[in-house]
Amino acid sequence: MKLSVKLLFGIFALAFLFAESASAQDDADRLFTLRVLPVMKEKCFGCHGSDREDIRGDYDMLTREALIAGGETGDPAVIVGNAHESPLYTAILWEDMEMPPKETDRLSEEETEYFREWIEAGAPWPSEVVQREIQKELWKIRENEEGIIFDHSGGTSEDWTYRRYQKDEVWAFSPLQEVEPQASSANQNPIDGFINSKLAEAGLSAASKADARTLIRRATYDLTGLPPTPGETSDFIRATEADGEKAWSDLVDRLLDSDHYGERWAQHWLDVVRYADTSGFSNDYERSNAWRYRDYVIRAFNDDKPFNEFVMEQLAGDELRPDDPEAKIATGMLRMGPWGTQMIPQPEARQIFLDDLVHNVGQSFLSMPMRCCKCHDHKFDPMPTRDYYRMYATFATTQPAEIEVEFLPEENLEGFEEKKKLVKELLDYATAKKKEIIDKQEDAAKKWYAEHDLPYKNEKERVKDPEDQKPPRHVGLTPEEQGKKKVREQDVWIWERRMERYQPMAQGVYNGQDDWKNGRKLRVAKKIKKNWRPENFILAGGALEAKGDPVQPGVLSPVGLPVDPTAADPWAITDNLEGRRLAFAKWVADDRNPLTARSIVNRIWQYHFGKGIVKTANNFGVKGAKPTHPELLDWLTKDFVENGWKIKRLHRMILTSDVYRRSGKPVDAEKQAAVDPDNKLLATWQPRRLTAEELRDTTLLISGELNREMGGVPIMPEINMEVALQPRMIQFSIAPAHQPSRTPAERNRRTIYAYRVRGQADPMLEIMNQPNPNESCEMRDSAAVTPQAFTLLNSDTMTDRSIALALRLQKENKDDLEKQVAQAIRLAFNRAATDQEKANFLAYLKEMQDYHAENEPEEIKYPTQVVRSLVEEFTGEPFEFIEKLNVYEDYIPDPKPWTVSAETRALADLCLVLMNSNEFLYVY
Hints:
The chain is mainly α. Helix content is 46%, strand content 5%. The protein has 33 helices and 13 strands.
């Protein structure tokens, strides 16, 4: 039977209406699932449902029925189809009520509109099955206007796994951009193209080029950490007048070829990896061979070792080249963090070591702090907690140890015998004192055994005997002697450990099974269990007891660089005992890894300009700073990788740019202050204060005291005597006092070679913002605080340097005060003195001569021993013992106020004024 046209039209109309209705219902379901419900979970459920014991206002929002019904008022909270009559909607508008009550939680206009549309659409609440289907459909779209979904190893929940991120926030995980510099001419440095285009957009003009004297001082400090000599400055000024570009290029090449370049730039890396010569925590055990890693870093920079190779050696040098001593020394980086085992259960101590490794490797090489995803999937970055524990598993076979590594021909072993002699004296003294006490104890023990008709056993042999079969623990000893016995036993160990400085050993790692560890002495296991494999799990909340899913070794998956794209698990690496770190190192140093190369390029930029293109050099994550010049960063990074990861080449490119050579004087100061107050666009040069090391090294250089010898065991500069002798606890005893190196030649070397004790900072360096080595330092603090002024004017260190400079001036200029003043200014400021300066300083010098002629300084003698006081832990009885300070028995001090004339002290005061001036302390 044929249907009429009218009937057919009616059927089609009904079908259309049903389809439209179904579509509207689908849209409402999606609105609830994707827009309304997430807001409820974040801002409502905490007070209205999640805690069944504490539902505020008796208003449960976990189901549609309860949400509509309302709370303690008895009135409905939602009038279906009518948002403006619904108390829930007016509450989130903050009309009748204010919900959520905190201003910081208040819904945005967009979120409020979602709720209005949802209520008007009937307040649908689709089943969890429908919700999941809606989410899965959306997850298939990896990028939309709301952000991107990352491919990674997966979170602990689907909601986290498929979370979206704004592209500009997760910029660091993106591949390097293909960008071209906006060059105004063929000869323009590409850096200037990027910088100048941003300045043009902001309507700012670049400052003019700095003068030659300013530029040589700037570059010389930047590349060597030392100032130029007056002669070098004069030569450069003359060369600049003849051919400015050639003079500058030659200067940069000369500085990069200097051995002092490696000393300066190694310091930057040592800040990042937290170099110190002790282990930290309450016992602060010495790491006697850490100096070999410090010297490795210096050599690596001087040799212009490709950074990707530098990375691989530090992470896995022992696996990369097992027979190469240099590669083994490089793994000292994995030993740089503070770590101890005392009073900590072994599994927990092991976890502390591995947690520290994962976190520091992440921030040092990848600029990604890892601690934030130790306990849960990262709150802001696309980093699953699974990846944290896969990296943890990567290092799970890594064991710390003092390993045997032969000395290299290029390592400095000068003075070993003389320095060993001083240590041996202290070891012999402690050994003799220990023997006296033990002999007395064992004499009493022998008597006890004879009285009880038992065969004698020494202290070690009788430890596990029943109490009635052996003498009392400290038989024959007074409470004071009991305390001294522990002290001397500890002293013997301390000086035996110090003797290891002079042995062919290194602070390194090996691959092997977990076993008992004592932080004061670590050695390679006598037998490696080749079939041993650690079990690793995701630890909920980071707790060892809360084991979750098992994990295998792997890499950071959101980087988008799979280890093997064809494998079932593309981010996994070998789970063999050997080779885990090497596989991980190859992934870190891969040309395609955007994090590693971006990280080091940004650090190099930062150390030249005071702040990086990304200000937070250790954190490229969502909560870190955004790049001020993202295109420049990516262009520099690509160029860096394509040209062999060579850092010196990057230096040349930066230093030969116009932006590096700008003066600090803006073209329009008022406009720049308004448009770019922080100088992010680099219209001008940003002055900086000398770092702690630069300050000390500079004062030694201009005073003529600096010993430029490179490498070797740590030096011990003179420090404030009160700090040097202050008691510092170390297991059952007091750590050795700081004894300076015996001769000026030994202790007046560059500061990078100074002994770094985590528990005892050099007061002078600390007050000038030398970072604490317990945490990675991404950027030195340069805050000016009052104690710095007191230290620079009154400390013994600065007084010593000013006297040494005064003696140099007198030696080189005899009794000619005008020449002495002129040379002082030339050495301090690298320029000629003005007539006014000469007149002012000569008048000041005369005033100080009169003062010192009437005021003789009091002589201060160095102590050769110090009396220590402790309390014996078992008896509670106080006791005293003597600590020998044998270095002072034939110590050669620097010139002191009481060893020089009144004229020298007066001239030293003038020198001290110069060394406290801004022109001396700042690089412009």
